Amino acid sequence: MTTDPRSYVYCPSSQLTTDEAECRALLADVGAALWITGDGVPSATLLPTAWEGNHLLAHASAHNEQFPLSDEAVPCRVVVQGSDAYISPRWYPSVQSAEHGGKARGRAEGRAVGTWNYRQVQFAGWLRVHRDAARLRDEVLGQAEHFDAQRLHDGASDAARGPWSAAEAPQGFLEAMLEGIVGLDLEIAEVVGRFKLSQNRTEVDRQGVVSGLRERGRTRDLEVADATADATPLYSTPR
Q1: pTM of the model
Q2: Higher pLDDT, 2 or 4
Q3: Mind spelling out the 3-state secondary structure of the chain?
């Protein structure tokens, strides 16, 4: 396409991630993305998604009316959502009184509210839908085998059973399954990575956030804690 789809993503400069490798790594880790299309009230479907070159690739049920076959490319937004977690103002020593384990004095006391930390990548581009049988077979089976290999890499409890292979499925069964899907190909026009990880807080508050998340201890809390600890802050020393 010669023109970009109209697009807007609110993202403060402190949270903008321009490193393509980081954005690719988030999609590779999450594996799926929300595909959004339509005027007025849009439609959305969560789909396993691959990023190849300047394209996002996925497949959907042929019965999904969000993706009708057409020769015309249509605007589309795709959202990859990483781990996210609530951030309590109790975790900011700079605004907590001594009673609550903080160091706030005077007007600084209590000057914070809860927020949310997360990593997200949004894509805007032009979507084409296809039913190329050979292409669908290569993309779908390649993706399936990739994710199953990732299952073993991530330490699945049934690792001794080995990876799944397309060769295990009867040929007729596979062909019938492939006839029931359509391929999605998004030509990427824009990538916006928004990593909201307490970059605007002082070092003591950031340490408080990391500690609070680790004490809460859910899987997503620990993932956000690690990401927050690794993020580059706006302020390198406590103010």
Answers
A1: 0.88
A2: 4
A3: CCCCCCCCCCCCHHHEECCHHHHHHHHHHHCEEEEEECCCCCEEEEEECEEECCEEEEEEECCCCCCCCCCCCEEEEEEEEEEEEEECHHHCHHHCCHHHCCCCCHHHCCCCCCEEEEEEEEEEEEEEEECCHHHHHHHHHHHHHHHHHHHHHCCCCCHHHCCCCHHHCCHHHHHHHHHCEEEEEEEEEEEEEEEECCCCCCHHHHHHHHHHHHHHCCHHHHHHHHHHHHCCCCCCCCC
